[in-house]
Amino acid sequence: MLHIEVSHVAKTYGNVQAVQDLSFTIPGGQIFALLGPNGAGKSSLIRMLVGLTLPDQGQISVTLAGQQHSSLPEGCFGYLPEDRGLYLDKTVVENLQYIGQLRGLTKSQIAEQLEHWLQRLDLLDKRKENLSKLSKGNQQKVQLISCLMHQPALLILDEPFSGLDPINQEHVLTILAELKAKGTTVLLSAHQMALVERLADQMMLLNKGQVVAHGNLQQVTQQLDPKVSYSVRFTANIDSAKLGDCQSVRHWQAQSELQFLLELHDHATVNQLLQELSQLGTLADFSRQQPSLHDLYLAAVQHHNQAPDTTQTISTQSISEGVAA
Amino acid sequence: MKIWTIALFEFKRYFKWKQELIGIGLMVLIFTLTSLWPMLKNALDKDYNVAVLATTGSVPELDGFKFQLLPPDKKADVAAGVGDVWDAVIDTSVTPVQLLAEEKASWQDKLKTTVQKWQQQRLISALPLSAEQQQLIAKLPEIKVELLKADSGAKDDKGQKLVSAGLLFLLALGVFSGFGFMFTAITTEKQNRVTEQLLTLLTPQQWMDGKILGISLFCLKSMLTSGLFFFLVIQAFRLIDNKPMQAIPMTGFEVFSALLFVGLGLLLVNSFMAGFAATIDDPNHSSRSIMMFLPAAPLGLAFSVMDNAEGLMMQILSLFPLTSFAAMPLRMANSAVPMWEWALSLLLLIGCLWWFKAAASRVFALGIRMYGKEPDWSDIARAFVGRKART
């Protein structure tokens, strides 16, 4: 398995600090997602990882089969760039054969891999068509095959779901899950939070080149400090004005005559809330409302953009310590 | 290995069997039409009837014309038939000789020249001179060239001129093909965003070397096939004219040498083009595209001194590594070149190519990763000399 350690990496383009002092680890055999709005630094970070640009400071260290490398060893990874591109005047097979040859595969290996992946991604009947004649989604699938055909230990995918219809998005999800099961490490950047939520073992939310949150879904949710709310349903009508008198309730909102959405004060506990609610009426249902990653992402980025300086940024060091604790 | 894979891919990008066959077919068609044209023209053109009014003697000879000798006293009858029976009448009984025709026509110039020579011969024959004296007047005096150094290697065969012109033409074909293919290949790859993925598989140097090799080989192929075709056309025309086959007035070593210099020259020129093309973002709007014509300059310089192959300027150009690939083959086709000069020129060219390729690959690496903007001139210059770019 391939394991990546990124330590205090920074990159500046002119006056723009694309990546600022990032440190994190991508454990082997896991799916690691980079999240963030456009210009957050995801692609800059990926370009440094694959060796297209060099960091201004910091180090990237790679461990593969017990050996340590200062950069990704040739042939061990597949890279799907954000700016897709293959030869439009060449056929699907010609493009993939060329990439396969450059990756050092033999003719029979290329033929075997093409047969497998073209069938898997429903491109067999388009194998002799020029790339220019394919839809954007199909072109993207061809590009994905070019990253997979040499069975890399690490797959780096910059926005792999953009341009794909929901069926093909599911297809790619399944493939990534299978690759993970086989021990492939996957690093991807994406905007589709719902897909990332289902797929990623670890995620890192970036904004303006800084880490906003990092960890598994639960840890990220905690770090983003969501306003936890509770959904309450009574068996019979209550005097809703009395909800405002509850000491534990900061804010409430009626969803129907019987159902309410409540937000708690920071010091309040769930037990205190339940006691106060039971005095108002009989509870038919009580549940904690988990905000979606999408909502958290939007709120966190908005909050981070309003922050005057980097002190709002969550230190990856403290995250690691927090997770360990 | 990767370089060869890229070279083969680039070669095949432009080499299409179908297009090659169509190209050869078109050339054969043009050749056939060209060779059949005189026959077709002769078959369609009518013969002009010309009456020659003279007392005695021969009549002029000219293809496409029928001459008939008539006594001068028939002039009135003959003149009445001009435009109907006769296209022209030549009256030798008056001075100067009169050419009578209905109206001005282009064929009359040809007829006039032939009649002038014929009349001159007649006048000479009428002079009270011996046959030898008449021959002396009629012919230009001969000049025999004698050389003190018989083995100086100077060549004065007409074939040398043909080879020189042919070499220059083929070289121009190779350089401009390289310009077109390299420019299109690299700017299209940048616009189609092919670069990102390939640069994780290859170093910029490997990619550029493969491109240069593949496209230079394709240019060389175009030069050789075109050269061979023109050579065959010349031979075919000579065959039609019942002339002996035209031999190539070059030794095997000279041919090998020309191929060597031209091949290295193409690599040099294509290195420049690859490096420079990578700095162009949008070929439709970049003012830098014009710089890609710069490699044509050595051809122009070599052409300007082609008529004095033994001159000092040609000697300098054939040694200077940026022009020797064009000048040395031309010089060798026209005069003998000392072996030490040949070897020095080759060494300088190889050395220059080695350095230039590395410099161009640094410019290539700088430009190929840039989208939406172009590196400025100072960054290109810094990359060329091996210093880190500021951006």
UniProtKB/TrEMBL annotation, chain B:
ABC-2 type transporter transmembrane domain boundaries: 109-351
Residue ranges of the TM segments: 21-40, 162-183, 212-235, 255-278, 290-306, 342-368
- Identify this protein by name: ABC transporter permease
Q: Which UniProt keywords apply?
A: Membrane, Transmembrane, Transmembrane helix
Q: What is its main location?
A: membrane
- Single annotated GO MF: ABC-type transporter activity
Q: Which GO terms describe its cellular component?
A: membrane
Instruction: Name the membrane topology term.
Output: Multi-pass membrane protein
Instruction: List the Pfam families.
Output: ABC2_membrane_3
Extract the PANTHER family matched here: ABC TRANSPORTER PERMEASE
Entry-linked InterPro entries: ABC2_TM
Task: Please tell me the species this chain comes from.
Answer: Rheinheimera riviphila
Q: Where does it reside?
A: Membrane
